[in-house]
Design goal:
By secondary structure, this protein is an alpha+beta fold. It is about 30% helix and about 25% strand. About 0% of the residues have low confidence.
């Protein structure tokens, strides 16, 4: 909506003009005498009517208008009102076809194994036992992966386990989480780091897989006439098509990509198209046959493009009244843009996703400095829902630390640094009011808050959290206020906020990806836990659209989640959370 509303609205307005003109031409009357209501064109003086469909063919032959007036938001009839999504009944009944559901005549299946160490290559392969197994059609050998093609995915995967593979791990075979941490700390140890500060803290967060419910999958069919068809779950159909064409060595006009429903993307299926490249390469080894390549859960968990691990040092100076007068932030983390979009790196090689929320703070702080130490290891990084969202955790928890040091209420402390016209202030006040900040709470329940802008919108959140005597954290309630400028479908916006909360909750409570011997340790949901239904808090979404701009809703609500929850944990326990996930912290005795 945020990126396409302008040209889509203009296209709709232009089509409306063409339809009215076509009806007026048929009636031989001025178009100014015609009105439209619910897809029906009415000629005022004669009361004659025509439906859009009745003049669509004639309208299509007309020249589109160069300039069209868009309807003023105050005159919108549908946008801004809750509308049920047409796809929900089919989803409930399991009707949509996802990438893993694709079935084609004579289709074969492929299971894939990639070098467990990123950047490694195939050294040797003994496929003798696998090739003799029932249903196996071929073993495909590539530089960076091996695949078995069979008449079912189960048989392909079983045969894959029988392959005797020797990988060349290269120089990254000894990399570990500890060595990666040392690399990041080296980035923080550059000279001239300011020494004198009243308040300082170090925060960190781990690598994170997207953990989509549907593993990466691609069905490809290289037809005898030299035409390539691809069926895949993708967030970027254009990139999938370009990757397929480049891999097959075909012009774009000889490639067709079918975008299937996807079982989760969160950025994983938007940038890197490795799964499309692999699917096409396997299909090229089986010309004339459609082949569905699907990763196992283990491949998916251990061959992602992960949310970057990072370490951040924050130091601040307060005046005698506790006001924040100086802040110095030093960030060490990999660069997503360096890996996926090097042309987008800013001046001096700054990756804006690595410094956002810290380099563009809304707070009025007289003296600020942000340093970025780019440290890219061999673990591939990518866009994880709301890229750079860890920085919101660091900033908003540190602001709470400063409020405590100043002896001030966290809400009042933030408001004092925000201009009256700042939309961050608007959503912060809206969330605080809806959550009754400062009011009474049930015994054992405590509040924390945060405010963060990003992805075109402004979001503030209040979290209500309890911590048991055993140190078990329960997020009871979330109140989130969002200003996205305009709201098209309030129901969908609230659903997005709820989805952000449950997706982000896993990264707070349990999730992390560690590295040992150059490879990702976690392999499935037994050691990369997802939140359960019983852990879902009550989510109340307050929409406060101020108009005048178009923000997003798919990502903003996740930004204040981690700091709001961690600030509430501090209120409950007096223990400050500066690293994730929470399962590593002893919160007993709260």
């Amino acid at each position: 909506m945020r990126s396409s509303q302008d040209y889509v609205r203009k296209a709709g307005a232009a089509a409306r003009v063409m339809l009215v003109n076509a009806a007026a031409a048929r009636w031989k009357v001025p178009a100014s005498e015609c009105t439209v209501e619910r897809g029906v064109i009415t000629h005022g003086p004669s009361r004659r009517t025509l439906r859009y469909g009745e003049v669509a063919a004639e309208a299509a032959r007309l020249q589109p208008p160069q300039d069209v007036a868009l309807r003023d938001p105050k005159d919108w009839k549908i946008a801004g009102k809750p509308v049920h999504r047409f796809d929900i009944p089919d989803k409930v009944m399991g009707k949509p076809v996802f990438g893993v559901d694709v079935v084609l005549p004579g289709m074969l299946h492929a299971s894939i194994a990639q070098c467990p160490v990123f950047g490694g290559t195939l050294k040797s392969l003994d496929a003798g036992a696998a090739e003799k197994m029932r249903g196996v059609k071929k073993v495909v050998r590539e530089t960076d992966f091996v695949a078995v093609v069979a008449d079912s995915w189960w048989r392909a995967d079983q045969a894959l386990q029988k392959l005797k593979i020797e990988w060349d791990a290269g120089a990254n075979g000894n990399v570990s989480s500890e060595s990666i941490t040392a690399m990041l700390r080296e980035g923080l140890a550059a000279p001239n780091l300011p020494q004198a500060r009243k308040v300082g803290a170090e925060y960190s967060s781990p690598y994170l897989n997207h953990a989509t419910m549907e593993p990466q999958t691609c069905t490809a069919w290289l037809k005898p006439e030299g035409f390539l068809e691809v069926w895949t779950s993708t967030q970027n159909g254009e990139a999938s098509m370009a990757t397929a064409a480049e891999t097959a060595g075909l012009p774009l006009e000889k490639v067709e990509v079918h975008k299937m429903m996807l079982g989760g993307g969160f950025g994983r299926r938007g940038g890197p198209q490795d799964f499309v490249r692999q699917g096409v390469r396997i299909a090229m080894a089986m010309p004339g046959k459609p082949v569905k390549m699907m990763w196992s859960r283990e491949e998916d968990m251990q061959h992602g493009f992960y949310r970057p691990a990072s370490i951040v040092q924050l130091k601040a100076g307060l005046d005698a009244r506790g006001n924040l007068i100086a802040m110095h932030t030093r960030i060490a983390c990999p660069s997503i843009l360096k890996v996926l979009m090097p042309q987008a790196l800013g001046n001096g090689g700054i990756d804006f996703t690595a410094v956002r929320t810290l380099s563009d703070m809304p707070y009025a702080i007289p003296n600020q400095q942000v340093d970025y130490a780019m440290r890219n290891g061999h673990v591939p990084v990518g866009f994880w829902r709301a890229p750079g969202q860890q920085n919101a955790f660091y900033r908003e928890c540190f602001i709470d630390e400063l409020a405590v040091a100043a002896g001030r209420d966290p809400l009042e402390y933030r408001l004092a640094m925000l201009k009256p016209s700042d939309k961050n202030r608007l959503v912060l006040e809206a969330a605080a009011k809806a959550a009754s900040w400062g009011g009474s709470l049930a015994p054992g329940v405590h509040r924390g808050l945060a405010v963060v802008d990003g992805f075109g919108s402004f979001a503030a959140m209040v979290a209500e959290v309890s911590v048991s005597a055993k140190g078990e954290v329960k997020v009871q309630r979330i109140v989130v206020a969002i200003d996205s400028g305009h709201v098209v479908n309030p129901d969908t916006c609230r659903a997005q906020a709820e989805g952000n909360v449950i997706y982000g909750l896993g990264s707070i409570l349990y999730q992390e990806n560690n590295v040992k011997n150059g490879r990702i340790v976690e392999s499935n949901f037994h050691d990369f836990r997802l939140p359960q239904m019983a852990e879902m808090p009550k989510v109340e979404t307050v929409l406060v659209p101020t108009g005048g701009f178009w923000g997003g809703h798919g990502e903003p609500a996740i930004l204040p989640l981690t700091p709001a929850v961690c600030n509430a944990i501090f209120a409950a326990t007096g223990k400050r959370i500066r690293s994730l996930p929470l399962r590593h912290h002893d919160l007993r005795g709260a």
